[in-house]
Every structure is written in structure tokens, then in C-alpha cells.
Amino acid sequence: MIRRRLTGYALVLPGAVWLAIFFVVPMYLMWRLSLNSGSVETGFHFSWDWANYHEAFTLYDTQFFRSFYYAAIATLIALAVAYPLAYGIAFHGGRFKHLLLLLVLAPFLTTYLIRTLAWETILNDQSPAVHLLNDLGLISGGRVLGTTGAVIAGITYNFLPFMVLPVFASLETIDRRYVEAAQDLYASPRTAFWRIVVPLSAPGIVAGSLLTFIPAVGDYINANFLGGPNNRMIGNVVQGLYLTERNYPMAASLSFVLMALITVVVTIYLRLAGSRALTGDDLSELG
Amino acid sequence: MRVGSRKAEGGGSRRGAALGWISAALFVLAISIAIGACGGGGGIGGGSSTEASTAKAAKKASGNLTISNWPFYIAEETVPDFEKATGVKTNYVEDYNSNEEFYGKIQPLLANGESGGRSLLAGPSPYIVERMMRQGYLQKLEESAIPAVEENLAPQFKNPSYDPGNEFSVPWQSGMMGIAVRKDLAPDIKSACDLFDPKYKGKVELFTEMRQTLGVIMKCMGIDTDKPISEEDWMAAIDKVKQAKEDGQLRKFAGNDWTSELLRGDVVASTGAAGDTYQLEQENPNVTWVMPSDGCIIFTNDMVIPVGAPNPTAAYAFMNFVYEPQNAAKITEFTHYLSPVAGVKEEIAKNDPSLVHNQLVFPSEKFIEKCSPEPVLSGEEEQKVTAAWNAVING
């Protein structure tokens, strides 16, 4: 028993040191930086300058709101697209299951940036795709690029596998006999789906939506290439503050506010959607 | 269940605690690294304002030379020719995307007395040169090391207000900032104010370079940019851009990434420099440069030697090389920018007489009579105006 406990600590140690050096220390530096005042010209000095935080809310509230709004919509669309897809592959994929999964992942062997730039080319104003959408009356103004829709679509596309994979993983482990048992007890296929399959795949849905939502809020690539000046997200603001304005304290404080807001949103979400679904406690009565 | 078993086994928990202490110690170590890195409350930045030293030239240039500049700002053969003539292995990097962005990238290095291996910067605008001089990030030039510059620098480019006597800087190229249009899609754009015509909603692009973009816009608003410009006038121009952004008039704020939309026709008009636009015209003949009816902004980019430059001798050799009229002429033929080198016109007349009469390359007095130099800002006003501009392009 003693050895077992020791082993436990020893196993945690590398991870703990890693986190301390590459997570806690950078966080501490960022936090310190966020309370600096001054400018590049005069030098930055640590001065408990909370004004950065105040300004983060007053100057960039629009971009914060926009980031959460875009990320939330993109997560919902990703779920709506990914669930039927994962369901189809898991339940009806047969011997092509792995091939189909590979096809979902194939585009993601290319880098993020190239994929987004490819969409910029596909969706340019002169492209047949955009002309078609325009003729069908699905878009107004004859363009897709530089609109809210383009940014949300880009985010959805780029984070889709993060939704598909966890949902697929949880659907695949479902014991089909539960569904059969439900149907034996006169549940219609629809009832069996909603009462058995969906609850059993809840851990995948929760994990997938977190994996999509969290990076999506901080994303700036999609807004940069697919959006216009009115679609900039908080990630773009932070990038601009760091690289062009060189207002490091403000950028650091915006990053902290973003982390805090994401933590709050995710906590509320887990409370509502059930952290029990995530840990699988819900299923113990079935298992 | 772990907690329960912990109580039962005292010895084990002691050894476990020992390991716990080790991790705690490592944690403390990590924190102290962090505090050390912070330099005890120092932080980032802060220019050293010591007396600038002079970049010393050795007898003969050799070794490697790294140069930073804007893209499409040099002739294809310039670097190979220079390597052939001097034997200096040259790494010519086109890593300028915007003045502020490049400065932001290199400033932390310069603050430590390093230049990231660069011996020559050819891209900065005057206000950045002035800022770098003030912060002690530049080395003085040794006059005797650049005889070709002394001989061939055209008089109107000598002694700029920010660097009297050209102690720190030598012009690279100069250019006219005006409007680049798709003449097939927006034939009636004549002045910068036409960029705000609702007819072109969502199809207009502006540069992030504040002084050049706002300079052109202020001219069409009837603000005299040759006199010192008041803060209200700057703000009025910024408000105009802000309004246009909110109305959806603008497609994007661009740096070097301004070309693709214009070539495709997603953007029909943009702020643009005559030289750049000439090069786009080679790709798509519908792209053309328009001299704004209210005049253009004439800008310059300077060659400077930053602190920590590993090979100033080679940098001097390059300056001399591009100030030889026959080499400068090649750059002009390729880029169509305004050359600061005297004798280029005569050199070009030998190979391509028609180019000599091109107003965009060798403008007559009359052609540029309404143009002004890039407007300047200083002190507190600069901070306020820059902050307001950043809020528009970054928000």
C-alpha cells in the first residue's frame, strides 16, 4: 500500500512540475504584467494598476460579447451537424466505420491556417458558390466574406472534429441491447433514441461542446480572414494590442478577463448540463 | 477512499509527504524563476537614452548581411548583383507588414541591444526612425563609409527635419500614397472622399498606416496637411473612418495583405501607393493608380543601422551599392517608386526612354503640386490620436 501511494505521487510529479513551469509561471507573469502601467517608450512598471481591467470592460465589451455569441452559435451548429454524422458512423457505419471516421478527419491533416485561407478563396465574391447562394436568395448583398455568417461558419468548420470525435466515442460504447430492451418494452424508435441513446451519449456531447466552445471563444484566425472590420473578436483585439499597439498590460488583462469569463460560463454550463454526465455517474444505475 | 486509507498508514503518508514537499519545493523554484524573469519589478520595455554610438566600418565588406524590408520593394537582380560585386552573402528578408507591427516585433530585441541578426533596416517610416533615434536604438552612420550616398543623394531628400545632416538615416525609396482602383468596377473614384460613397459599400479597403491613410483622407476633407494639423482635424478624419466602418462601408483594414481582394474585385478601391499599384497592374490591367484630385501624400522609407547590427560594414557596402545610379535605376524600373538617387533618370533614359516621361515615376512639379509629405505628430497629441486610431482599426 505504501509503495502504491508513493507510486501515485511519483506519477503525478512530472505533470505537476510541467504545469508549474509551463502553466503556473506564465500565468503569474501574465497576471503581473496585467497590473503594469507605462508604455513601451517609458518602460512598464508593476504598479497594481487595476485600470487595465476597468478599461478591458469599457473599451472591448462589444468584442467580448461577440466572441461568446459567435462561439455559442458555432458550438450549437457543430453539435447539430456532428451528432447525426457521428450517429450514422457509429450505428450504421458497418465495416466502413473507420474509413468514414478517417474521412471526417482527413481535411484536418492540413494546417488550420491553410484551411481557413482556402475558405477565403472558395467564398470570394466572384466565386460560383457565392453566385449560386445569391441567386437562391440565401445571402444578401452578394457576398459571404466579411460577414458574421462567414466567421461563424468558419469556426464551426474548423472545430467540427472536436465535436465529432467525443460524440462518436460515447455513441460507440453504447450497448445496443439497451436500445433493443427499450423497443421490447414498446418504446418507439424515436422514444428509444431520446430516452436511451441521447442520455447515454451525454458525456460525449458535454465534452465535445466544451472542446469546441472554449477554443472558439479565443479564436482570431477565422475573424481575421473571413470577417470584416465589424466582426473582430476578442482574440483579434489581444493580437492587435500585443503586436501593433504594444500595450502589453492591457492585452494581458484582456486575456485574464477572457479566462475568467470562460470559467464562469463553463461552470454554469456544467451545472446545468450536468457534470455528472461528464463523469458518467448518471450511467451507474444502468451499468 | 484514498483519504480513508491515508489515516491508517502513518509511515506511508510521511514518505508521501516528503514527495509532496519535493513538489512544493519545485513549485517555489518555478515561482522564483518567474520573479527573476520579471527583473524584480522591472518589466518589459524602456528605452535606454544613452549617447548613440557610431557603427564602425571595417576596410572591406565580407561575411553575411541580413536586411529587413517591405515586400516588392527591390529589383530581382539587386541582391544577386550585390553579392557578385562584394562577395557578401545577403539574406534579404521581406518581413515588414506595417510600421507599428515590425517595430513591435523588433523593439524587445533592440531594448536588449540586439537586432535579431539584422544589420540593415530599409523599411521604417520617418516617425519610426525618429522614435528609434530617441530611444537609442540606432547607430550613427559613418560619413566616410558611404561615399556613394554622399555623392548621389538627391538634394530634396537631404537633411530631413527628423534627422538633420542624415546622421542616422539614408532614404531607401520614396512614394506617392493615393488611391488604387479597379477601373472596370469603380471608374468614377477621383478623390479619397469617393471611397466613402455608399455605392461601394463593403468594397473599400484602407491601410492601417495611420499617417498615410488619414493624410490622404484629410486632404479630401479640405484640411491643410502642409501646416501643423490640429488634434480636432485628426479626430475628425478618424471619426469619418469610424463611421464608415460602422456603416459596413469598409471591407478591411489592410497591411501587405491588401492585394488579393483588389485583384479579385472583392474590393474595388483602396488607399494605395503608386509603385505597389503599378506592380499589381502587371497582374491585372484593370487595377490602376489614381492621383487624388486633392493631392497625394509623399512618403519615404529610410535605411538605418540598428544597435547590435552584426555586420555594419556590409550594410554600408549595400548602401553604397544601391546609391550607384545604374543599380538604383534597376530598382526604379522594377518598383516604379520615386528614387532618392540623383542620376537615375539619366541612367533610365539610356534603356527605357518612355519611363522617363511616366509621371508616376518621375513626377513633374505640376503633377505633385497638391501633394504633401507624410504628416507628423508629436508628444501627447501623438498618443491620443494613435490611441483613437487603434481603437477604430483594432476594435
Provide an overview of this structure.
The complex is a heterodimer of chains A (287) and B (395). Chain A contains 13 helices and 2 strands, in the order αββαααααααααααα. In chain A, α7 runs antiparallel to α8. Chain A is globular and about 75 Å long. Chain A is mainly α. A two-stranded antiparallel sheet of chain A has the order 1-2. Chain A starts with a helix and ends in an 8-residue tail after the last helix. With 395 residues, chain B is an alpha/beta fold. In chain B, strands 4, 5, 6, 7, 8, 9 and 10 form a 7-stranded mixed sheet that branches. Classes of the chains: A mainly alpha (287), B alpha/beta (395). The interface between A and B is large, with 53 and 57 residues.
Number of helices of chain A: 13
Give the SSE string of chain A. Answer: HEEHHHHHHHHHHHH
**What's the helix-strand series of chain B?**
HHEHEHEHHEEHHEHEHEEHHHHEH
Hey, roughly how much beta strand do the residues of chain B contain? 5-15%
Extended strand count of chain B:
10
Distance between the termini of chain B: 52 Å
Give average pLDDT of chain A, whole number.
88
**In which range does the helix fraction of chain B lie?**
40-55%
Which two chains touch over the largest interface?
Answer: A-B, 53 and 57 residues
Largest sheet of chain B, described in full?
7 strands, mixed
User: Structural class from helices and strands of chain A?
Assistant: mainly alpha
- Tell me the β content of chain A: under 5%
